[in-house]
Amino acid sequence: xxxxxxxxxxxxxxxxxxxxxxxxxxxxxxxxxxxxxxxxxxxxxxxxxxxxxxxxxxxxxxxxxxxxxxxxxxxxxxxxxxxxxxxxxxxxxxxxxxxxxxxxxxxxxxxxxxxxxxxxxxxxxxxxxxxxxxxxxxxxxxxxxxxxxxxxxxxxxxxxxxxxxxxxxxxxxxxxxxxxxxxxxxxxxxxxxxxxxxxxxxxxxxxxxxxxxxxxxxxxxxxxxxxxxxxxxxxxxxxxxxxxxxxxxxxxxxxxxxxxxxxxxxxxxxxxxxxxxxxxxxxxxxxxxxxxxxxxxxxxxxxxxxxxxxxxxxxxxxxxxxxxxxxxxxxxxxxxxxxxxxxxxxxxxxxxxxxxxxxxxxxxxxxxxxxxxxxxxxxxxxxxxxxxxxxxxxxxxxxxxxxxxxxxxxxxxxxxxxxxxxxxxxxxxxxxxxxxxxxxxxxxxxxxxxxxxxxxxxxxxxxxxxxxxxxxxxxxxxxxxxxxxxxxxxxxxxxxxxxxxxxxxxxxxxxxxxxxxxxxxxxxxxxxxxxxxxxxxxxxxxxxxxxxxxxxxxxxxxxxxxxxxxxxxxxxxxxxxxxxxxxxxxxxxxxxxxxxxxxxxxxxxxxxxxxxxxxxxxxxxxxxxxxxxxxxxxxxxxxxxxxxxxxxxxxxxxxxxxxxxxxxxxxxxxxxxxxxxxxxxxxxxxxxxxxxxxxxxxxxxxxxxxxxxxxxxxxxxxxxxxxxxxxxxxxxxxxxxxxxxxxxxxxxxxxxxxxxxxxxx
Length: 761
Hints:
Blueprint: H1 4-7, H2 14-31, H3 37-46, E1 49-51, H4 70-75, E2 85-89, E3 95-96, H5 98-111, E4 115-118, E5 124-129, H6 134-142, E6 160-161, H7 176-186, E7 201-204, E8 219-228, E9 231-240, E10 252-259, H8 263-277, H9 288-295, H10 297-310, H11 316-319, H12 321-324, H13 347-354, E11 355-357, E12 363-368, E13 374-376, H14 377-390, E14 395-397, E15 403-409, H15 413-422, E16 437-438, H16 452-465, H17 472-475, E17 479-482, E18 496-505, E19 508-517, H18 522-525, E20 530-536, H19 540-554, H20 561-568, H21 570-578, E21 594-595, E22 598-601, H22 614-640, H23 643-662, H24 673-685, H25 696-708, H26 716-743
Helix pairs in contact: 2-3, 2-6, 5-14, 7-8, 8-10, 9-10, 22-23, 22-26, 23-24, 23-26, 24-25, 25-26
């Protein structure tokens, strides 16, 4: 029987075909022990191949079910070759065709678990597949014009863009051809191969909406126009150095008007500077946001512009521009108004939330809601057929983990709704509070701490039951959930954000979530929220109810949720959460000790979970509670605009957490910052006791950097950053202490906890 390589010969782009051949050869060499594992790891990541979590592999929405037996989960895989993994598939600007959807559906059925997942970067992901199958999978994708190259790894990731680009009523112009050109130009470019970390780019057609989220990107491009000498010129308001992750950074303005002909050369120049000056050894500081912060935007801009001057000319910089003006999509059907057409049951509710009138009269965009970003291979294939009938090739994925069908004739909307209902993709609520965004969390991610998808499914189900009676102000809110601090679920920019963590209660692990408030999606992610308290996972749905009901009750006129949070104030919001923070004993209510969608007693799997002696836990928790209080007080000073005091309190919180851990070995550590930091560094960092567990070594560097180099100028950005860093450092101390007690290496102390700035009794 011919192989897929033989079947598809001549149907693939020659460059893509050659790259896949090289990857397949590298797989052979690795299996033979002739290729170093570190090199191969980066190689497979740059082909979109991830290892995935084994211990908690499950889904919560009825689409995906566990493919492994309990014995498999318990014993785990011995090597990468034995383990099912994840394949990420790049979809530049979210543009996908029915033929490509058909191929994706086939691959999901043949190699994965028959589920396709849409990510917050407009990619597709397939889970539970084996690395041996990936070359065939890649060839079949290449045959329909799709690549997995640089979907992961230290590379330019998928270039995202507003899914309404070209049809939006408020855009300046269509950014689609620019996003497409940028993606193609930078893919595999020699100047993008030397990064220390990933690089993300986004395009937005306007400043005021959330579609592009340019502020949270390494490079963000917002469409702008100018009139010069009586002629209209296109350009971009260009931002650099944004990013979420553990500590988010707002992107900085690089150029208020970058002419369109300079887009690609400046992107290349930025790449060259990042590759040359960006951090390589310390991955925790290797994103370009750290380079921009280190140099300052003015110096970074100067270096990039100098780099631009010395780069050799490239015809590709402007070669695509003549076709930009001619770029347009072809509708499948003629435009026609909806008036007078029969409307089936359920249509009106769906129409209110899932249909957007294009700027082209008679056409609409339809959002197909995918709960948790998932659809089955059967639904994917059926959706492709529906698109062929109503939309043609005009399909896009969204950063909200949905799919949109563009250029739908309004008269076809009732028939389209009937078809979507037939295949189970007719859910209303797109872009509302029920349209919850969640990262994979403990389902498949090795970094997951708590079940973001399980919590998201529970919140979605509860809100959906009462969706038609929810106040309109609440309907317009957004919930985003991450399974850990890394913000893959974008919790920092949600109205109601949550990220997973854990606490040890009575020697048992309990899943918790930090509650993040103050984020703002609009204006391209204009503001990042901060965590105000940790609540057991099982109480989070009640927290959602409490906060939304309080918003409805006390809202002042048309006040936004962000303004409401600011007016009410964090002390009052924290007080509201306190009644949800207590955890009953395991004997009185064991449900707290399991996670959403998983009846097993909670663990944090590969991250490790241990039991510890009650006396030590109570003492250290006392110290860490004091540290968390200091972080919260630091937030209050940040909100008041007292950035100097905010910085001091956050630093003090890190010292308080550090001394909590040091005291487990050295009870009488002097109450002085130098002594605390030196003891912490010597005992836990230099010895690698912190290690990579919960990113301990990474977060320890936040303390060292602040201690060694106090800021000379206090700004809102710098204060916001250290608040985030302090909270993450405290979480690392929690995790490290649990690890040590699991191994029985923590000393037992009967002393009362030290308070920084006070003398211990």
